[in-house]
Specification:
mainly beta; 5-stranded mixed beta sheet
Length: 198
């Protein structure tokens, strides 16, 4: 699978957001096998030192131990595009790219895929378990140059994390092809800002 990507120019409204560094040791990025097939992306954050929000098993897989206690104020979960998105080359690509887990051979790949089609960018990967089970989560390892960061708005931390790439992907900065129908810009949509409260 090709993993180079032409990101193009992000919409102006996507640049409302900046990012702040995070302590990577407080996070784990997981792939969860689904009963109906496919994989779900999940990010866990350890806010307080104990109890532990996840534990590593002897077979190298992860148990999300936060399901066994009231984790309010102790752990945070980021389970979909409301909680995480792609940021690359100091640009927010939440509106143009999706984060997908895709098995390839014996590896589980986390890709940032453009919604208009085309090649994706490889963000992280992990060995596939021989027999995936719904209670056996796979810990993904970032590719060089990738990490998690916090989305910010006017210096205020939000309850959203970025999968952040430090550099430009191949073809970044090239113009995207025009959409089939021009977007309507006449309507102003108010932005709701959700502060991050651990």
């Amino acid at each position: 699978m090709a993993v180079a990507v032409a990101l193009g120019t992000a919409p102006a409204r996507a640049q409302l957001f900046s990012s702040a560094p995070l302590d990577q040791q407080r996070f784990v990025v997981l792939g969860q096998p689904l009963a109906q097939g496919g994989w779900k992306l999940l990010v866990l954050e350890q806010i307080r030192q104990s109890p532990q929000c996840w534990q590593r098993r002897a077979d190298g897989l992860i148990d999300p131990s936060l399901i066994n206690f009231d984790f309010s104020g102790i752990c945070s979960r980021y389970i979909d595009s409301y909680g995480y998105s792609l940021r690359l080359g100091q640009r927010d690509h939440a509106l143009s790219h999706d984060l997908r887990l895709i098995p390839e051979g014996r590896q589980l790949l986390l890709l940032g895929l453009p919604r208009r089609g085309g090649d994706g960018v490889l963000i992280a990967q992990a060995p596939m378990p021989s027999r995936p089970r719904a209670d056996a989560f796979v810990a993904l390892r970032f590719e060089p140059g990738w990490e998690l960061s916090r989305r910010t708005y006017n210096g205020q931390a939000l309850s959203h994390v970025y999968f952040s790439g430090a550099g430009q992907a191949a073809g970044a900065g090239q113009p995207s092809p025009p959409p089939a129908k021009p977007p309507a810009y006449g309507r102003v949509i108010p932005l709701k800002v959700v502060p991050y409260r651990p």
